[in-house]
Queue: 3 jobs
Job 1
Amino acid sequence: MRSFGSDNHSGIHPDILKAIEEANKNHCIAYGDDPWTQQAQQKIKDIFGENAEVFFVFNGTGANVMSLKACVSSFHSILCPDTAHIAVDECGAPEFITGAALKSIPTPDGKLTPALLKPHMSHFGFEHHSQPKAVYISQCSELGTVYTIDEIKAIADYIHTHNMYLHMDGARIANAAVSLNKSLKEISVDCGVDILSFGGTKNGMMLGEAIVSFKSELSENMKYIRKQSAQLYSKMRFVSAQFIPYLTNDIWKQNALHANHMARYLRSKIEDLHAFTFTQATDANIILVKMPPEIIEKLLQKHFFYIWNENEGEIRLVTSWDTSEDDIKAFVEDLHKLI
């Protein structure tokens, strides 16, 4: 099967598999007290700065929930876009585990701004209301749009004046970085991000994510939060070993460049066929486009993708690090026949 449903559907980069195999050759101490974890932590520090504290976890939901739990108490609230992964696709885990209220904010493009946040920045010190304490953004967004450096800085500067934390969901941070032609550090900690969910599963890794904390008070209890959240992996070397080639050999950049290029290529081919309505910019590796229901139904018989908004006839196509031109050619040829 070939899929445009999600970059989670793609396989594992051969060099990542090789790194896991190398880590499997002998015994070592569990729970992160191993050379692979220490090397991967240092590699991430080399990228984000020596003040970064790194905690490896199983998955993206775990990274997001743990990051937010470090930021908030149960009487706090977390502000996020209404399309955010934590609001739509995490089964209430952020509220269940943190105890904090999730306040979702409608956005036109999946991105928050100080102006959109402002109406929710009230009732500080008023005991009858949840206290705003954290803002969640994802880079790139669930709609495939990418925050610019200035946009992230504006949010960070605004909420920091209210003693709040900025959490970035970086499940696709590699795609955002190459889209902006900036480093991972430039679009995160340098912009004022306080804690980052640093993902690679969508970009060629097998499993696991890294929480990267840039504030000592957020790092202080993270190892206990990780254990209580069932995210402490005994054989941690198989997570951390992946990050070594992923970062050392710029696999993160090469894979993301390819996925983004394939998305632009796919969009251009669709545009050449017909004047379909694209509902968002294709900044990274996600395309949102409207098509007639009868075309969507027939395309789904041969190709896997998700309907984003059934009422609007809007579908989401996601390209991956291993998407090929042949994959796109097959999709476009079938779409051409239906038109």
Note: The mean pLDDT is 97.
Job 2
Amino acid sequence: MSETDGTRLENLPRPRNQEDPDFPIVSRLTAALQASGALKGKTIAWHCHLTLLTELAARAVVEAGARLVLSECNPATTQVEAVENLEKMGRVFLGQDSAVQALASKPDILADTGFVLIPTYLSSLPPETGADIMGASEITTSGISKLRAYRGSFAFPVFNINDGQIKSLIENFHGVGDGLLEALKLHDALVPQTRVAVVGYGKVGAGCAHYLKANGARVAVVEIDPVAGLLAHFDGYELATLEQALASSHILVTATGTAGLLGKEHFLQAADGLLIANVGHLNSEVSPQVLESICEHKVEKSNGLTEYHLKVPSPTGEQCGSRRLALLTGGNPCNVALLTGSDAPTMLHLTTEILTWDYIASQCRPEKEKQLPSGITGERSLPPDVETLAARIALDALGYQFYA
């Protein structure tokens, strides 16, 4: 199973045929893009989650005069209604070859989720061809890690949206934390004193721990980085090893973005009845194919919950015991697959992403790019002006006109 393989789940879309009247950010984003004019006539290849929120944000890009070509980053988060609506605004490609198909449109800007589109482009063309790309963006923690490990050359800048303040402190912390909470409540999984272990204490993990604790859960944190572990301790959480967490928790939340975090040995030592929920970008973080291979049978529950029944050998190997493990949304990011949590953080990070493309179109022409220092990987920090504009647009949408 690849990182983007999976069955499209029956999501729970809420009606979003019009912009949220409580947070009308898209109309203000559209006005800002039209005033800039930089995106007019540009082609943007966007590898992303194809959801109703993506559709809402895409309207601003199209109304600003840009051409959108979208590719599916995870079939388990794709919503049929969103695809149908997006196809009215641009071209949409699904499946494993979606990134390759999107690149055939000869885009000016690459917008990536999980560092798939960019390396596909670089590996399929001669290095000098990269000069045709004005710039690119990446929005995920796992994607930035892959970007930094990439050993190829870049002829264009790649802007790190994930480490910006808006994405990390609002979407990653509040958006994912709130979305996880709502996803668990759909299954009545959270009651007072539920023992929950959060694996990974980056901004995503920290947000999940915060929201879980605020709703009465007893939260432990699993973290291999000593500094992050120390922060978790002073934030009021007990620290545990992964083995301790598996054996003593009711719910295990994975938030590392690391493929293969869980394997056969972890499933066999987990507590009976453990519920596993992933909020990292990749379903391979929790190795669902391994769980499939060792289960005797499975039961499909509602809202994307699957219960696996395992036979677990005793330490002496003389007899086997039974164990039940539950996996939410096939190991895909549950908040995205179920479209749970507040829309505002997601719309704000999409606004920041789109304004980054506007910056690329206005500032990253070849003659201007020559003036910018070239990093080893091509990575660039998000320009402060982009986040400032995104914040002003958001605050205006929230009713704080004095920031405009």
Note: The longest strand covers residues 305-313.
Job 3
Amino acid sequence: MRPSSPKFIITGGAGFIGSNLTLALQEKFPDAYLTVIDDFRSGNFKNLTGYRGDFVAENLATLDWRETFGDPASAGFDAIFHLASITDTTLHDQFAQVHDNVESFRRILNFARPKKTRIIYASSAATYGSASEPSVESNGAAPANVYAFSKVIMDNVATHAAAASHGWIIVGLRYFNVYGPREAHKGVPASMIYHLAHQIKAGKRPRIFKHGEQKRDFVYVKDAVEGTIRALDAKTSGIYNVGTGQARSFNELVEVLNKSLGTNFDPEYFDNPHAHYQDFTQADLTSARQALKYEPRFSLEDGVRDYMQWLFG
């Protein structure tokens, strides 16, 4: 049973999913004491308009948790949501990606271990690598880039930590292709839905890879946040997919955007420049439904409609 005035930390809370999560927690738990930690490398203070909590501007790879928050037993945090990471999959500095993502996580685990503070952290569908059918959590990892590799190591470390400390609940969430409000600051790494919508609004044909039959499990950020909050009630540790369970093609996406924006642009196809590209992503939600009672509410049509209203009014 959670206290009526819980204390939560959200790392990466000025980022895309993190800011949406922070504001949703603030709404769901109006008496909660929230602390966001972010170094703004992939976040923006404007994402937290209306935020009423504390903020620590620090790099998690070097943060001294005990110095900042005191003894973990007396700090009294009910959960740590760890959303921070280097998220740019085109950054190929292997040391920077793995060091920052993994060592930041290790520091969090070391702080949380004495009190067994619940940890809910962002993994990624990128850990599955190339797939041709729905990805199940028990599938072996096949990271195609160093970002995905760093997430695989985080999953390994989390699994070992939970197994070694009875009663400590650590939940990893493998987000699929998340899109929605508060992602504009990401620039190039923002979702293709964001970029294609702006191309269409500018009167240009939306540019997608030949021949548009690549498929993605596009999950609206409101569903991703709902799945994340549901992890507060998980009874055991585990790693779970967060998606819609539906793969939709890039061509379908253009149709959905045209319908939502009242336009009729044909796609402009171009060659895919990426050597290691996931042509197909789709989440198997069996485990998430059982363990988290997670059920996505937004189809691609519904999510895009809601997002376009937020983007363009």
Note: The chain is about 35% helix and 15% strand.
